[in-house]
């Protein structure tokens, strides 16, 4: 997994990205345009979520207290998955649910 604009753009451009997760409330609107264009150009599946704090929590950019709750969550605007790990039913659902935008637009 790659986090942050620089690492994610490199992974997408090099063809290593399997899926991109982008936060809609990104501080810089140009980030959204850049990542969206790169994903469309490379055919990378893209998921958009509303909050960058939630994305930071999903990416593990936080401390977990004794109760298992996330504390001190660091916000991130973009995360790229480069390896899904072992194949499961949940992974199959995820891959079928989120098709590349270029393919979805053509349908």
List keywords for this structure.
two-stranded antiparallel ribbon; four-stranded mixed beta sheet; 107 residues; alpha+beta; disordered C terminus; single chain
Task: Summarize the structure in words.
The chain has helices spanning 5-13, 29-42, 52-58, 89-97, 101-106, and strands at residues 2-3, 19-23, 45-49, 63-64, 70-71, 78-81. The chain has five helices and six strands. Strand 2, helix 2 and strand 3 (45-49) form a beta-alpha-beta unit. Helix 1 (5-13) runs parallel beside helix 2 (29-42). It is an alpha+beta fold and 107 residues long. It has a four-stranded mixed β-sheet with strand order 1-6-2-3, sandwiched between helices.
Largest sheet: 4 strands, mixed
Tell me the structural class: alpha+beta
Number of helices: 5
Catalogue the unreliable spans.
100-107
Number of strands: 6
Mean pLDDT comes to 81
N- to C-terminal distance: 29 Å
Spell the H/E element sequence: EHEHEHEEEHH
Strand order of the largest sheet: 1-6-2-3
Gross morphology = globular
Q: Report Rg.
A: 14 Å
Strand content: 15-25%
In which range does the helix fraction lie?
40-55%
Summarize the structure.
This protein has 107 residues and is α+β, with helices and mostly antiparallel strands. The protein contains 5 helices and 6 strands; from the N terminus they run βαβαβαβββαα. Helix 1 (5-13) runs parallel beside helix 2 (29-42).
